[in-house]
Write a structure and sequence with these properties.
single chain, alpha/beta, Rossmann fold, Pantoate--beta-alanine Ligase, Chain: A,domain 2, 2 domains, 9 helices, 9 strands, about 35% helix, globular, binds pantoate
Length: about 280
């Protein structure tokens, strides 16, 4: 595997590559990321992964400074994951001048996580578009764990006519259901035990919907109360249409149940798709 840190070197290395699959990351890689690399490999002869902790997507009170930077271990993992190129730019490479040109997103970017993290998706969209322009992949892989992010990236590709196929990868989970996330490493032992409750709560909602319940508001309220009573601070639990992320209606067949909540100082997110077949 080659580790490349500048745009010129990356472009020179990629010249002549016809089938590039790209996986952007912020590092601190876990099995979930490696599953994305594996999926990328199925779609291309050249797999590029980027590692860049993107200041633009963190709010002023968020954990940008504390975000774990584990470049050496990450590169070893990418190498064992058979990635061809690790692109590891530093801030001066991606933001040589303060970034003023930003991607303006539709209102959905201000809902769900966007409501609680103002500007977050604008920062994600801007760095992802820059990375797409630098790598120029035919395929890019994103995890479904960040469901709203995946949705917004699909919208960017569609509305800005980018010739890139976006692939959504299923969420990788620990044995108790907790979605793998770089932030799980911050949880105390007691919090780690409790953390699975978010997943269990979403499973409960999914099962209720599959059994015919359509009072989405009531389900959301009950879920929030349950989490609350176990010491969580809930940002939201929501049932949305899976293809548009609009609020779900009783007749909808493709749904997604999403949740974001704080356990101590750690904000966890998760989601489950629900497809009604009858
Ligand atoms: O999902 C992430 O890790 C980040 O939001 C991404 C897509 C790498 C952009 O910084």
């Amino acid at each position: 595997m080659e580790v490349v840190s500048t745009i010129d070197a990356l472009r020179a290395r990629l010249e002549g590559e016809r089938k590039i699959a790209f996986v952007p990351t912020m590092g601190n890689l876990h099995e979930g990321h490696l599953a994305l690399m594996k999926l990328a490999r199925q779609h291309a002869s050249c797999v590029v992964a980027s590692i860049f902790v993107n200041r633009l997507q963190f709010g002023p009170t968020e954990d940008f400074a504390q975000y774990p930077r584990t470049l050496e271990e990450d590169c070893a993992k990418l190498k064992s994951g058979k990635v061809d190129i690790a692109f590891t730019p530093d801030e001066n490479v991606l933001y040589p001048v303060p970034q003023r040109v930003m991607v303006d997103l539709p209102p959905v970017a201000n809902e769900l996580c966007g409501k609680f993290r103002p500007g977050h998706f604008r920062g994600v969209a801007t760095v992802v578009l820059k990375l797409f322009n630098i790598v120029q992949p035919q395929t890019a892989v994103f995890g479904k764990k960040d469901y709203q992010q995946l949705f917004i990236i699909r919208e960017i590709v569609r509305e800005l006519n980018l010739p890139i196929e976006i692939i959504g990868a299923e969420t990788e989970r620990d044995a108790d259901g907790l979605a793998l996330s770089s932030r799980n490493g911050y949880l105390s032992a007691a919090e780690r035990l409790e953390a699975t409750r978010l997943y269990q709560t979403l499973v409960y909602i999914k099962e209720r919907i599959e059994s015919g319940e359509r009072d989405f508001g009531g389900l959301q309220e009950r879920a929030e109360k349950t989490l609350d009573s176990h010491g969580w601070r809930v940002d939201y639990v929501a049932v949305r249409k899976s293809f548009t992320l609009e609020p779900a209606q009783p007749a909808d067949k493709g749904l997604v149940v999403l949740g974001a909540a704080w356990l101590g100082k750690i904000r966890l997110i998760d989601n489950l798709e629900v497809f009604i077949t009858e």
